[in-house]
Input
Amino acid sequence: MSTAPVTELELPAFDHTDPSMRGERFHAEMARLRGSGSWLAQGPYGYLTLDRESGEFFLRTRSAIFPGMKIAEIFGVSEGALYEQMRRNILHVNGRDHSRLRSLVNPALSQRAVERYRPAMRASLEGLLEEAVARSGAARAEGEEEEEGVVRCELVEAFAKPYPSQVIATVMGAPLEDAPRLHHWSNWIQRQFDATSMASELEGIERAVGEFYEYAQELVRARRESPADDLISKLIEAEEAGEKLSDVECINLVFNVLVGGVDTSQSQLAHAVRLLGEHPEQWRLLVEDPGLAERAVEEALRYEPITPFTARILTEDVVYRDVSFPEGTIVMVCAFTGNRDLEAEAAGEGGPERFDITADRGRARPLTFGAGVHYCLGANLARTELQEGLEFMARRMPDLELDGEPVFESVSGIYGLAELPIKFSL
Ligand code: HEM
Output
């Protein structure tokens, strides 16, 4: 059978960097692509895979890598702290070094290991609820027109933003009061994966990387002197056990866990609450049975992946489905459409466009955490903290409802919410 060069295909176009691409417009564009019948679309830098199988192929193939160093090259980052960090980012490490790093850090983030953080997660949520209630009381005292017993707050600021950085601080073994600083660094450093930010905010990213390196070095030094039951102590133990981990690798793993684990969980939690708020009948189901939190998390991950596009660059020519892709081609894997690619039974009566926290999606795992050897290292932690978050809100804020329009961020990079006004009564 003959193969066609990808450049000769007639493909639907889609630009994920278009700043208006968010909210309903984004969903409409995704529906257009899904309806086009094509498994591939043309993007601004390369191509996008649209179905689950092709997405998994490009994430799993050994002929593609994460294109972060290409981004560094394009934006002239060739030395300094940011360059060193990018080079050492676990997403850029491949082959045996990568398996070694993963095997050292995996045990600390296994499902069994993260279970023990549940009490800390609940304590964090409890503290945040107290603060939100106190702020709302203060607003009432200042004469703002509030009904007695009704709490109005902005969910991102009050819960979604502080919660994951408090959890990461606990996991890493950093003091809880450092959580806001960790959030600040993670938020800035994360922007290295977004071409738009690299073009306009490089200096801020460089500064955050330098500051966090200093902070992490200090933390590792402190833990070396007084080990505790946390990720950094475990990594130091591995390092001392057999020179399997160098000092610089240890710091960079801490770095990756911080950067990977803050904006992501924040955004997914905010979208999950938004989706439940927009589907009050689903929220009621969760309130009646908070045990549904696990399913609700899976459905939010499937329905609104906060990593809608995961990029790869081909390191050699690849032929797939009779289409040839030359070395150097950028392929974006679209988790949004891939996650809607369900077998008839898993799609159920409402089909894949229905947000349904009771649906049994069968074995179809979401592409939201990626696939293959770079599959999200923090997926167990993320799922657990999201479950705790939703269960907590269902139990403690049962009449929660949206109190205004959500403010969407852009889908390029991590797809988050800037604001989600909510209200609930005590
Ligand atoms: C809902 C929350 C999260 C989502 C949607 C998410 C998504 C992803 C995705 C799509 C990848 C693969 C990227 C690629 O292959 O190009 C990834 C990798 C990674 N994630 Fe997450 N993530 C989340 C939470 C976390 C958390 C909580 C942590 C830290 C504990 C974390 C740490 C990492 C690390 C270190 C990698 C790189 C793994 C490697 O290169 O081997 N993530 N994540």
